[in-house]
Amino acid sequence: MKCLVVVSHPLPNSLCRHLADKVVQHLIEGGHDVIEEDLYAEGYDPVLSEHERGTYYGTYDASDVEGQVKRLQEADALVLVFPTWWFGFPAILKGWFDRVWGPGIAYDHADDFGPIKPKLSRLKHVLAVTTLGSPWWVDRLVMWQPVKRILKHALLGACTRNCKLRFLSLYNAEKIEEKQVAVFAGKVTEALERWS
Predict the structure, then answer these.
(1) pLDDT per residue rounded down to tens, the chain (196 residues)
(2) Dihedral angle at the C-alpha atoms of 101, 151, 73, 59, nearest 10 degrees?
(3) Phi and psi (nearest 5°) for 87?
């Protein structure tokens, strides 16, 4: 499969970077065609411009993110590796959704501005790998997993058909031990093996 791995962490020695390296290595060893986008390392601009937003209901001008659009449209599988900050996506990843998952790319507007129509029909698998400083019970019981809900229902639910999501969260990441990281990395590997 063509696998797109999108990494969103500013520190090159972060836990997210470590997990992303494991993902890329495992996918390559599994014979997949892997393209990696490290948004911070590439200097990706997450800001949806006035011009881009002005074209949203006509012909969306995504020329400034043409490479990212092409890679998304060609992907059979997508892996997102990112920290959860304030129970949301990092701004750079949110900006990737804002600019790259635009109209005519990830979806089409309905003629009457009713429900949008999904366009990412090639995308069949998404794995989200995220780290959180909070304990599991805050994310799940208090906040009701807002990042997972947005990804599953708002993004994939609106822009894909028959796409399977696996969402893996590593909690208490600021005070985690190596053994716990290894166990979590095993879960990531297990999720990727299901794609074979």
Answers:
(1) 999 999 999 999 999 999 999 999 999 999 999 999 999 999 999 999 999 999 998 899 999 999 999 999 999 999 999 999 999 999 999 999 999 999 999 999 988 878 899 999 999 999 999 999 999 888 888 788 999 999 999 999 999 999 999 999 999 998 889 999 999 999 999 999 988 6
(2) -20
(3) 60, 35
